[in-house]
Amino acid sequence: MNEWNSFLTEKGHTKETFAALDADKMAELTSEFQTKQLDAVKDAVSKSLKADDVTKQIEEGIKGLVNQKAIDDLIAIVKSQGETLTKMKNKDGVQAEKVQSISQAFKSAIEADKEAFNSIKDNMNAGLSTTTKAAGTILVSTNTTGRVASYERDADRSKVQRRNPFLLELVNVSSTNAANITYVEQVSPDGAPAMTAEGVIKPLIDFDYIERTAAVKKMTAAAKMSKEMMDDVEGFVSDTEDELIERLELLFDEQILSGTGTGTDLIGIEVNAVPFAAGSLALSVEQANNFDVIRVASNQIRLNNFDATVALVNPSDAAQMDLTKATDGHYVMPPFTSADGTVIKGIRIIENNGITAGDFIVGDLSRFKVKVRETLNISYGHSDNDFRLNLLTALCEGRAVAYIPTNYFGAIVKGTFTAAKAALETA
Predict the structure, then answer these.
(1) Are residue 262 and residue 371 in the same domain, yes or no?
(2) Which of 66, 129, 257, 341 has the CB geometry, 3.0–4.6 Å to 124, for a possible disulfide?
(3) Which domain holds residue 42?
């Protein structure tokens, strides 16, 4: 059985079943057989200097792959080189003089008769089949691997979108070097002034002072990373620092709005704001809407001897105000409101997702005080086995205190639109 038939048997085929295969499968098997035979030739050449051994392997390996003339010519060259190499060995098998390598021997033969070699090469190319697959349409999806097609990386690294912190722009902010802030309030006023006739004793008034204390609180966030990540990923360090700062700014904003004042929390605006009260306007407003609620809240603040400057609302509630319409479908804007609806009786509407939908806060936020002990900053360091693990930790932190004197509580009003409208709506 020749080499080709043996190969077919090894692959589970006969000449008949092979002939029945499709073109792609036939090409695949033929290519595998050729590769196997040529590898055997290479192996024989590398392992033996005996001309007869090489010749036999070449005869078996390339039989059927090239035409007969090419085989005969190649065998003649190898036999000649084998005889030369044999003469160069002594009878004990020890090299008597410098022996050329097999590759050098082939090179010498080629140089000696280039015309014969070129003839062999042409004949081999004519007889050797290298088809590995059937031809077809060339597509990027099927005929390329990796980044053959052109590509471009967008330089923008999209970030998670979060709301903008906004309260530090509205409250009374200053700095401090202290760990605790004390402030004094006037309390318990007694007596009253009076119109006084000549010679009559003047009325006395008095009041007391009370000292209150607010403690500085700390806010922190950290990110641990490898040095390789910092060095090799473009923009990673700046992105990480931006992320730490942004997250802490939002935490600070949340604390100013709704901190409980207990434990490590700052005290927030909502804790000290007074609830909405309709007062004398209760059950007196036809078809009460959000505009009406804000207008009445400003009245409540004015009655507390303060002037409201801002109203904090959720964007959805602001949109509902913009879309208010009459029964005939035309848009309605109260006469005490600016043309675009962003100012109501001198009160600026501030929209932010930090305010829960349906809630509102109206007031003079300059009465609420924030003192910053340590501005948000980032430092790097090691902990535990970080140095040996090639890790660094980025730490972002800041310290601040927030408070509002009890005498200013009436400057800020909070409530929900649903409850406030119900309190205003006519019975």
Answers:
(1) yes
(2) 66
(3) 3-138
**What DSSP line would sit under 328-373, residue for residue?**
TS-B---TTB-TTSSEETTEEEEE-TTSPTTEEEEE-GGGSEEEEE
Q: Does one domain contain both 365 and 239?
A: yes
Tokens 């509002």, located at residue: 404
Tell whether the model's pLDDT for residue 88 goes beyond 60.
no
In this predicted structure, the answer to whether residue 101 has a pLDDT above a threshold of 70 is no
Q: Looking at the 3D structure of the chain, how many domains does it have?
A: 2
Summarised one tens digit per residue, pLDDT across range 282-308 is: 999 999 999 999 999 999 999 999 999
Report the distance separating Cα 412 and Cα 409, nearest Å. Answer: 6
Q: Which residue has the tokens 């003839």?
A: 119
Polymer length in residues for the chain: 427
> Is the same domain home to 236 and 350?
yes
pLDDT tens readout for residues 373-392 = 999 999 999 999 999 999 99
pTM for the full predicted model: 0.67
Q: Once rounded to an integer, what is the mean pLDDT over residues 319-343?
A: 92
Residue 145's alpha-carbon distances to 27, 131, 299, in angstroms, are 22, 20, 72
CA 424 to CA 284: how far, in whole Å?
A: 6
Considering the domain boundaries, does residue 213 fall inside one?
Answer: no
For residue 295, which phi and psi values (nearest 5 degrees)?
-65, -40
